[in-house]
Amino acid sequence: MKLVIGITGSTGVIYGVRILEVLKQLNIQTHLVITEWAKKCLAMETEHKLDYLKSISAEYSDDSNLASGISSGTFKHNGMIVIPCSMKTLSGIANGYDETLVARAAGVTLKESRKLVLVTRETPLTAINLENMLKLARLGVTILPPVPGFYTKPKSIEEIIDHTVGKCLDQFDIEHDLYKRWGS
């Protein structure tokens, strides 16, 4: 399995870091693309450097490189997760505005009928945000805001993060033990 992972400049970049770590542990290939604002969030919100993210990804493309393989439908992969997904990126995807590689790769994922998961980060939401989400949901995109499941009784921020990462993996039927399932 190969997944494209987009990380955009919305608070919560740790979700993107964690999903890359988990996918690496599960031996699932990833192709990472990270926006300039996500790089700034990485520095503000974590102790991680871009080189660390590159080291746990099978491939990396710069967000300005619209000639990257992931900008073409001929690039074979099983789907894409944008984690976190800013409202700017959501709008670009919803309206076919492929200014960045993240938006272009997401658009290609859609046109090739592959699974696209957007971990949208913003609150409160405007009617514009909701309309963009609805437009994409009607096209089959999974809108997966990072909403913790407190039935798991998380004891740390890491457990809350793992819940959202696990929910993303569930979208691709990837087995994991990141959280306790309801009723188990």
Overall average residue pLDDT:
97
Q: Considering the protein shown, what is the CATH homologous superfamily?
A: Flavin prenyltransferase-like
Helix proportion range: 40-55%
Main β-sheet description: 6 strands, parallel
Estimate what percentage of residues fall within beta strands.
15-25%
Domain count, please report it.
1
Structural class: alpha/beta
CATH-assigned fold name: Rossmann fold
Strand order of the largest sheet: 3-2-1-4-5-6
CATH architecture: 3-Layer(aba) Sandwich
User: How many DSSP E strands?
Assistant: 6
Overview of the structural elements:
Residues 1-172 form the Flavoprotein domain. Belongs to the UbiX/PAD1 family. It is an enzyme of class 2 (transferase). There is one protein chain. The protein has 184 residues and is an alpha/beta fold. The protein has a single domain (2-171), classed as Flavin prenyltransferase-like (Rossmann fold, 3-Layer(aba) Sandwich), CATH 3.40.50. Helices cover 40% and strands 17% of the residues. It is built from seven helices and six strands; from the N terminus they run E-H-E-H-H-E-E-H-H-E-H-E-H. The protein has helices at 13-25, 36-45, 50-55, 87-94, 101-111, 127-138, 157-170; strands at 2-7, 29-34, 59-62, 79-85, 115-120, 142-143. A six-stranded parallel β-sheet has the order 3-2-1-4-5-6, with helices on both faces. Helix 1 (13-25) links the parallel strand 1 and strand 2. Helix 1 (13-25) packs across helix 7 (157-170). The longest helix has 14 residues, at 157-170. The mean pLDDT is 97.
